[in-house]
Write a structure and sequence with these properties.
Blueprint: H1 8-22, H2 26-36, H3 42-50, H4 53-63, H5 77-84, H6 86-102, H7 112-132, H8 139-147, H9 150-158, H10 160-170, H11 174-185, H12 189-198, H13 204-211, H14 216-220, H15 224-236, H16 256-262, H17 266-277, H18 280-287
Amino acid sequence: MGNPPDRRCDLDDLLEDVSGLVSPPEIIIRLRSALDAPGSTASSLAAIVAQDPNLSAQILRLANSAMYGLPQRVETVSRAIAVIGTRALYHLALAVTATHTFSRLPCELVNMAVFWRHSVFTALIAHDLAQRCNVLHPERLFVAGLLHDVGSLVLYGRHPDLLRETMLITRGCEPLLASHEREILGFDHADVGAELLTRWGLPESLRTAIRLHHQPDRALGTGLEATLVYLADMLSNRTEQGCFSEFGPRNEEIPDAIWECLGLDPEDGEDCRANVGWRFMETLTVILPQARY
């Protein structure tokens, strides 16, 4: 049997085909440049965000949401930066703008309401897990959890006829879905998402986490981020609100090595799921204010 065909050119072609639809908006590019500049200040970042009133309002709603539980209400972007930090502000802006951008992708095979519920639920669990593991800038994991499946929107939007049967026979089992995608195309939706988010400036650790979120054995060897996103995805799929499948929750086994790597146990996972539940709808309506859930 010969070697499998090289599908890399197909992945490049796929991304090139949607590059105009999913390119990062100018405000994210400017925020990233300002954040990396030596003379960057909170006021300079606030000035950039203030140029987009809708983005400013959504960031303030997130800063005032139960995700942070601040004792006093934050009224301005400058104050939000002072309270949550410049990098947290950037990651929240990234989460809001990326979600808005990807939600416009036409995709007849994916139930968009279910997709974004799963994405937001996973994001909140990833954020909580990161806090429990004392990960620096846990908002990074919120972003990775939120965007871990965006490759699906591209893949199933561009190849509906090729992948329609895959969606039907896997019945919402994500690892099996990714396996079928690799058999058909040579890559899966996680590969597409990771490459896509290179263009958004996500750091390598988060791109790797997205690429490996269905491959726990490989995730364990690449750092906490990949393991956290994998675990958040699995825990989300165990809930009615956050499951990826339209067929209901899936209680797939989580390897002991995952808990051991993070210094957590299944009770921590249950606590995270419970904590996310009462914050879920508030966060969903902030991230996607115009959507139908």
